[in-house]
Amino acid sequence: MQRVLDPAQIEAFAQRTIPRIRLPDPTTVFSARAARLRQLGEGHAVGDYLRLMATLADAQQSALDTRVDGDWKVVLGLLCQAIAAARGFPDGVKATCERVRALPAAALEAQVDLLLSNAVEGVDAQAAPFIMAALQVCQTRTVCALSPEDVTERAAALHIPGCCPMCGALPVASVVRAEKAYQGYRYLHCSICASEWHLVRIKCSQCESTAGIHYHSIEGGTSAVRAESCDSCKTYRKICYQELDMAVEPVADDLASLALDLLMTEAGFHRGSGNPLLWQAF
User: Nearest to residue 208, comparing CAs of 46, 7, 32?
Assistant: First the structure.
């Protein structure tokens, strides 16, 4: 006689058998994102912006590789300096970087509070991607330095449904992995530290409902990136399928699929959380 497990039993079993946490690879975390952004930017309607964010990701990898000392505001200054010196971008980009570098510490801290609370009102949309990029570098460095014991302890201490167990931030999207050790498993991808944590498939990453879950894509577009919506809480997040495109990168692919966001907005759904490299309401 075949035994049928309910969703709670399936999840409990999965947590015992599936690697729960995937830490980022500090040698490639931002460079891989940069490469994907450039690939997606070819012929894209917002290709110039994707290329700008690729340059920012390269600067993040450089800051991580060289182990820049200091708090996130020091990293922010270095990232803005690198972007301001880059060629091929409008003068407004350099002006924004210089303005961000000149912001008082109190103003920067206030922006961080707004960004991490997923706010819209009061957010400096031009400064947000650079501020978030600096936080990403610092938090990624922190989690990559954790020992296995530290990872286990932190995951237990920060066990908040829907939030990153390593840093407490919200996920930007989820990804179904295809590498041998993780094949077929779905992970939420942290918008800040790039850690990933397991979540069973066909489950809302916002309210954890397993009913009324649907998947949406743009007709004629890629099937490697879809929107997973929930009828219970009317939210959605993107889900990337590595088996359909091994190069998918949650932050980059989410950013490059804005048409899907517009589709979901028109259908009456709202994003569970924003993309760290683009701050606007959908």
Answer: 7
Q: Rounded to two decimals, what is the model's pTM?
A: 0.91
Which CATH topology does 7-23+169-271 take? FdhE-like fold (3.90.1670)
Domain 29-144: what homologous superfamily?
FdhE-like domain (3.90.1670.10)
| Residue-range domain boundaries for the chain | 7-23+169-271, 29-144
Task: Give the whole-angstrom CA distance, residue 277 versus residue 272.
Answer: 15
Domains 7-23+169-271 and 29-144 share a fold: yes
Q: What is the pLDDT of residues 24-63, one digit of tens each?
A: 999 999 999 999 999 999 999 999 999 999 999 999 999 9
At 214, the pLDDT band (50, 70, 90 cuts) reads very high
CA–CA separation, 110 vs 151, rounded Å?
Answer: 29
Task: Give the amino acid at 170.
Answer: L
